[in-house]
Each structure stands twice: as structure tokens, then as C-alpha cells.
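FORM 12-B: Structure-to-Sequence Request
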């Protein structure tokens, strides 16, 4: 196991003002490069999924539901950090546009998609008073709650009718249930994830399991670790039950051992994978800020989570490109970002429904959202004095 060396004290690199300014710049880059009105409709905005964008991308011909949910979540981060009427208006416009572009309503057939949107909408309503999607939140809550499948031993499937029950659906759904007051279901989800998908060798959370066959898919992704860390930290804060504290401790050690180098989260990918590292950073910040307890283990866990966020954010910022004064983040935070040369090599949807990386992944909105997520997470831990 890697030895822990949590950082203590404040210095210039951990100044909340510094990270707030960097988060502002990350937000500005997304706004200027990616935000565009939907079908030229007034009071609408969505994120164009590539920069430079193809004609198809500018027209929102392909629908990246869960990327837009994270755009809402980032917009909420910015409004919570430094509230302005413009930021609150932007949240409203993106949420309204999401509903219009989704055509059939707020929900779809993918439980992971719906969980991400539920998290974003709940935060917007609770922290910013944005109620444009209140009916949508109720619909999302029903879908996520009713999708639990005790007939095969619990778990939410990846999508309606699927036999695949995975961490990317159950982790964020558990967080949504927690924040919507469905605490018993959130705890069921956390217990199911730990019993079913925790790898006893590495300590990491595996991707998913086919049920009732029991065949496990064994890839490990950063965002699977992030959502379980966030869920367990919130349950620890709510219930005070030791098992949640212990799971956070064990999983933090596994993330440090297997998913960081020099304290920086290892390189991710583009396409859908472009969001994975940013999601881990978001929920490491949740651990740093929310994990309860004054014992040495909990103090060190909070500091370790904060130190990974800070180290990753410092590396991502150092390796960014400045393009017309605004940051372009790299797909691997420990390496220099590459400048997309044009629209050639854009990502595409696979037969399984996932989105591949662009030839130069830095053109993907997902990668740039991860950079913004990371800057907001660094601000949150620095503002907490960690």
C-alpha cells in the first residue's frame, strides 16, 4: 500500500481566490467555445460536443444526454461559488434546452443518464432555487427508485430491459436517492455495490455484473470509484455507521495505489471517458469536505482526498494550453494538452451507445468539462481549508 503523505496548511497554491479565478477561466472557455442556442430558439443554451465543431455537432444532431447533465452540474458549481444573475439564468436555460432536445421528456431508457441529470437538477433546485425542472426531478426520482430489481438480488440495470447491472448506474443513482431523501434505498445501493462489485484484490470497484448469470465485467474506471466514494461519504455523514467510513478509507487507498501517479489522477480518455477523471475529482472533493469524524483515520482521509484533487488540478493547470487567453485542458492532466487542428476525427456513437474519443481528445466537450470540474473541486477543498 502506498504510504500517505497528506499536505497540511495553506500556501499560494491552495488559495481559494486562486482556484476561483482558475475556475472562472475554465467556465469562460466552455461558454465561449461550446455554448450555443438550441435551434436558434431564444433563452436556450446547450453544449456543442466538439471544438472546433462539425456542422452536425453545431446542430445538436447527436444527443449526448449525460454530458449535458454534467454541464448543468458545472454551471451549478460556478453559481454556488460566486452567485450572479447570469449564472443562475444560464442554469435555467441549459435545463430548459435539455428538456426540449430530449424530445420525449426528462427521462430516457438509460438509468446512468437519468441519475446524472437527477443529481444536477436536484442541486440546481436546492442551492440556486431553479425550479424549471421540478416536474422532471419527480419523474427522474420515480424511475430511479422503481428501477431497483430485487428479483435478481438488487441493483439498477444499465438501461431498461438490460441484464447488466453496473456501478455507473448504481453509484450516481445512490447519490441522487441520498439527496432526495430516499436514504434506505441509497444504503441498499451502497451495500449492493460493495458486496457485488468490489474487487477483493485491488479494492477497486469493478464495472458491472450480468444478472442472473453472475458474470462480472472487470474493467475499473475512475468514475466508478468517484461515485462510490461520494455515496459512502454522504451515507457516513447521514448515518454515522462505521462501515461507510471504513469503505471510504479502503477505497481511497485503492485509488491512491492504482489510479494516481505522483498524487495526480492517471490519464483518462476522450469521448465518454473524458468525463471519468473529473467525476472522480468531484467526489474526492465531497469526501474532503463532507466525511465526518475526528479520529486520525478520518482526518487523514479528508486530507488525502483533498491532496489528490489539488495535485491533479495543479498538474492540469500547468499542462493546459492558453488559446486566445482561455484554457484548453489536456486529456491526461500530467501531460501537455494538444491543440485540435480542425473538425477531422470527431468522435462517434458506437453500436453499444457509447461515444468514442475524437482523434485529438482535447476537442471533446467531455474533456473540457472534466477540467472545469477539477478547477471547481480544487476551489471547494481550498475553501474548506484543506
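FORM 12-B RESPONSE
SEQUENCE OUT:
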Amino acid at each position: 500500500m502506498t504510504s500517505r503523505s497528506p499536505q497540511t496548511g495553506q500556501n499560494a497554491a491552495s488559495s481559494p481566490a486562486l482556484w476561483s479565478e482558475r475556475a472562472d477561466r475554465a467556465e469562460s472557455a466552455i461558454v465561449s467555445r461550446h455554448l450555443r442556442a438550441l435551434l436558434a430558439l431564444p433563452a436556450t443554451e446547450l453544449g456543442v460536443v466538439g471544438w472546433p465543431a462539425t456542422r452536425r455537432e453545431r446542430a445538436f444532431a447527436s444527443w449526448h444526454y449525460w454530458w449535458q447533465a454534467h454541464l448543468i452540474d458545472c454551471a451549478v458549481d460556478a453559481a454556488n461559488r460566486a452567485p450572479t444573475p447570469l449564472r443562475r439564468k444560464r442554469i435555467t436555460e441549459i435545463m430548459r434546452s435539455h428538456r426540449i432536445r430530449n424530445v420525449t421528456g426528462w427521462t430516457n431508457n438509460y438509468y446512468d443518464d437519468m441519475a446524472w441529470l437527477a443529481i444536477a437538477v436536484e442541486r440546481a433546485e436546492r442551492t440556486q432555487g431553479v425550479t424549471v425542472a421540478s416536474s422532471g426531478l419527480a419523474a427522474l426520482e420515480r424511475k430511479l427508485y422503481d428501477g431497483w430489481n430485487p428479483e435478481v438480488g438488487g441493483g439498477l440495470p444499465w438501461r431498461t430491459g438490460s441484464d447488466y447491472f453496473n456501478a455507473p448506474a448504481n453509484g450516481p443513482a445512490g447519490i441522487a436517492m441520498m439527496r432526495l431523501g430516499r436514504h434506505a434505498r441509497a444504503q441498499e445501493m451502497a451495500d449492493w455495490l460493495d458486496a457485488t462489485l468490489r474487487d477483493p484484490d485491488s479494492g477497486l470497484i469493478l464495472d458491472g455484473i450480468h444478472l442472473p448469470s453472475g458474470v462480472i465485467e472487470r474493467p475499473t474506471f475512475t468514475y466508478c470509484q468517484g461515485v462510490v466514494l461520494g455515496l459512502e461519504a454522504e451515507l457516513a455523514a447521514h448515518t454515522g455507521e462505521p462501515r461507510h467510513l471504513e469503505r471510504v478509507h479502503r477505497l481511497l487507498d485503492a485509488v491512491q495505489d492504482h489510479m494516481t501517479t505522483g498524487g495526480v489522477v492517471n490519464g483518462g480518455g476522450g469521448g465518454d471517458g473524458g468525463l471519468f477523471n473529473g467525476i472522480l475529482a468531484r467526489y474526492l472533493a465531497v469526501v474532503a469536505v463532507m466525511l465526518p469524524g475526528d479520529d486520525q483515520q478520518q482526518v487523514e482521509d479528508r486530507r488525502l482526498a483533498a491532496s489528490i484533487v489539488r495535485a491533479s488540478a495543479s498538474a492540469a493547470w500547468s499542462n493546459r494550453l492558453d488559446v486566445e487567453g482561455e484554457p484548453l485542458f489536456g486529456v491526461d492532466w500530467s501531460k501537455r494538452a494538444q491543440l485540435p487542428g480542425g473538425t477531422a476525427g470527431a468522435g462517434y456513437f458506437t453500436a453499444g451507445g457509447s461515444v468514442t474519443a475524437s482523434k485529438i481528445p482535447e476537442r471533446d466537450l467531455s474533456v473540457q468539462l472534466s477540467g472545469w470540474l477539477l478547477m471547481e473541486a480544487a476551489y471547494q477543498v481550498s475553501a474548506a481549508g484543506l
